[in-house]
């Protein structure tokens, strides 16, 4: 029996020794959700020049006392000019004239938005602090500094910062192509009539969605059989992929199709001290002529998704946001297992469990927005006890 941490490390070692993603350079408009392949530095100062944070008057702080003549007017987009002395009416985003060092907001002088005309006189409230309301060149980031680190997932703010730096493309990791194979003689394709004793294949869709959200390209196939030969045929027919994920057929029962098909090929099967998700398989097999890592998850729908969250998602997407929250009610947990329960964040700032322990409770999982971790050694946690919670609602 291995620990969760040991199996995570084994999966990481296996996947990283095979999957070395190429770097692609999509335009920013096509890079949402992609993962940065390299550090990206800004080629320009952000902001690129000293500019005004307010509508107001640009002055020299040490010459702002007493009446001042309004000596000019600059708006956003105007060129950078020399400061002629006095007070220059300046709009938000306009370049601070060279030689001025502070902005006095217009509402500190008169009514908001009402500027004195050029050659009028204004009286500013003293004292004026040098640098006030000036957005200094490079104050967000200096040219040449790292803007985003390798591994960053590109969202709206990251893409906006790249655009603000004038960049048009961005180095991202090629998406991993993941073949998902759901197995089991009892499975039926949603939409088909359900024969007595059959159930619909949930995992092909749920694992595909999980892979897609984690930035991968999911290719799903169902081997609705417990014949090892059928699974081997499906794998032989597959095109090149970076990774294979199977579901089902990995326990110690009589018809363990994945185990029966892949153990002779060198995939190793064993138990992880995890509930759900205890039985796991891991190895490399030949797919489309290339050695390809394969992760074998148990078939229960909750087990396979929890397996994905613990073992694969961190490699593709990084860690989930981790919270430490008090439980809304007490819970028991097996001492020897790391138990992962499904939960929901409450308005009271606690986490409540949704559904029971059993790993077939997919509808309950579908009402959850969190995974609740009850580590090895914990047999009972009381209401109010703080536990580790992963947010899974994105
Ligand atoms: P297994 O891991 O093959 O022993 O399957 C464990 C349980 O999960 C059994 O009740 C299976 O019927 C169920 N199961 C396996 N694969 C799927 C699937 N793709 N969708 C829904 N349930 C599944
Ligand atoms: Mg099965």
TrEMBL record:
The keyword Magnesium applies. One of its GO terms (cellular component) is cytosol. Pathway: Cofactor biosynthesis; molybdopterin biosynthesis. InterPro entries: MoaB/Mog-like_dom_sf, MoaB/Mog_dom, MoeA-like, MoeA_C_domain_IV, MoeA_C_domain_IV_sf, MoeA_linker/N, MoeA_linker/N_sf. It catalyses: adenylyl-molybdopterin + molybdate = Mo-molybdopterin + AMP + H(+). GO terms for biological process: Mo-molybdopterin cofactor biosynthetic process. Residues 179-318 form the MoaB/Mog domain. This is Molybdopterin molybdenumtransferase.
